[in-house]
Amino acid sequence: MNGHELLQKHISKTVTLSDDVFEYVLSHFKEQHFTKGQTIISAGDKVQHEYFVVAGCLKSFYINEDVKMFILQFSMPNWWASDFEALYSGEKAKIHVDCIADATVLALSNEDREKLCREIHEMEHFFRWRTNKGYVATQKRLLSFMNNNAKQRYEELLTQYPQLYNLVPKHLIAAYLGVSRETLSRL
Fold first, then answer.
1. Residue 32 CB contacts under 8 Å (≥ 6 apart), including other chains
2. Tens of pLDDT along 134-159?
3. Per residue in 47-74, pLDDT tens?
4. Fewer CB within 10 Å, N side or C side of the chain?
5. Which parts of the chain span the membrane according to its record (predicted)?
């Protein structure tokens, strides 16, 4: 399935668009290719795009003053990635986004997303729905950190996203779970 078909299928799970309207929506996305290890967003950047992942895997992460990495999200096909706070506020990025594997994405500028929302009610609904799902996922992850031990969080992650185990190096899964590589090995 190519990127256009994947995006159309993704959007159609929430709203119905005619082929002509979808082609218009698609015209606002730009396909981009990145290689494993390549940085898409660095802390301090001005962020102008969000990225729909077509192939590969991205990670969104934060590095604190002690140079400790905290992984916020892995983005696989059908997922979106960006520093959304920076994208929506115009402030500089606080997080990094890079490629765990070679990746193909469809980039959508903040300006074009807003334009599509103004012009096409269904797209406004789609982006609101997508944002709501993101809030729910973030809330679930926070509650898991508050209520579950590392083993329970690891099992929950592999149950929800079994494909991560083969896509993502174990040290990155450990960083996502907030444990050391050694602790992950014991799990």
1. 51, 104, 105, 106, 107
2. 889 889 888 888 888 888 988 888 88
3. 999 999 999 999 999 999 888 889 999 9
4. N
5. none
Closest Cα partner for 34 from 87, 86, 106, 95?
106
Taking a C-beta distance cutoff of 8 angstroms, is the pair 50, 131 a contact? no
Are residues 165 and 100 in contact, defined by beta-carbon separation less than 8 angstroms? no
Contact yes or no for 107/175 (Cβ under 8 A)? no
In degrees rounded to 5, what are phi and psi of residue 54?
-95, -45
Beta bridge partners of residue 46, listed in sequence order: 92
> For 124-133, what is each residue's pLDDT tens digit?
999 999 999 9
Task: Compute CA distances 111 → 8, 78, 107, 144, whole Å.
Answer: 20, 21, 12, 35
The residue extents of the domains of the chain are: 3-116
